[in-house]
Amino acid sequence: MLNTPRASLSFTIKSLLVGATAAIASLSIALPAVADDFPTRPLNVVVGFGTGGSADRLARIMSGHISEEVGVPVQVTNRPGAGTQVASNYVLNVPDDGYTLYASTFAPYLPNSILTGGANFSVDDFSYINFQWFDLDLIAANKDSGYEDLPSLLEAIREERGQVRGAVVQGSAGHLMVRLLLDEAGIPQENLNLVTYNSGGEARSAVAGGQVDFVSISAQGSEGIREFLTPLAIVSDERIEQWDALPINEALAPMDLEVPVLQGSMRGFAVTSEMERQHPERFEKLSSAIQSALARKDVQEQLERNEMGGVWVGPERSNELMRENYQVFEKYAHLLN
């Protein structure tokens, strides 16, 4: 029988245990991580507007294609109100597990809800997967209103206090542009009977139906009511093929006025920044699903038929664009207070 001193035996056992522990640790490092089966249940796309608007139509078309890419159903839920603040707060308060996507016209509504709406979140609380639809704003009159150009509309607002009715979506770039036009022209804001809506669909229905005299709203989403409109100006530095309208400052030239050309709408999909931090692999799956969908010819053809944008700029550029838009909006948002 081997006569081993107690201290030596204790050291030997301890050494064996340490060695075994190290071997197990190294083995666990070498083994691949357990794959995340996400998603295993339906995804929910929360839209920051009511039904019928541009963001809603985009979400409903894209949801079917995203579903095909991820292999589970994708449902759409509308949570309009407070210039998308209702939807933003909802998304920020559900679990950060990747099962909730946020679809909206993020610019300019998100900056406005922060700068003028008292929101208790920031643009950095969201991680923007992709902005796929960029749009310029159109100022257009109902065809029966009698307004044929922008100066005649502004002069009517100046002279006929409270008689001219306008439609905008609350907190939109179109809303800010109307306020900016009145400010630059020296027209009291209260001279205009301005009606604010929670969705582009409602605002367009109002001008098409003659409930208001004019609308300031995204151009591309207004194709469906073209026959009811007289275009007065496009908020751009140059003409665009789709609309026979003067660029905003060219339209204002007879009044010797000039306004900043505000960046138009940016629509797409986002999640919370906390979701990306906690589940980067899930964020990547969602990003890849949207990118793959937009790479499909049938998807692009459907978007084109519905006069929607379908570009892929990716998370990095989308987040940069959001921060840039916030800075521009911050400069002029006081006009909406």
UniProtKB/TrEMBL annotation:
Q: Which UniProt keywords apply?
A: Signal
Q: Does the keyword Metal-binding apply?
A: no
Which superkingdom? Bacteria
Q: Which residues form the signal peptide?
A: 1-35
The entry sums up its family as follows: Belongs to the UPF0065 (bug) family.
Name of the molecule in the record: Tripartite tricarboxylate transporter substrate-binding protein
The taxonomy runs:
Bacteria, Pseudomonadati, Pseudomonadota, Gammaproteobacteria, Oceanospirillales
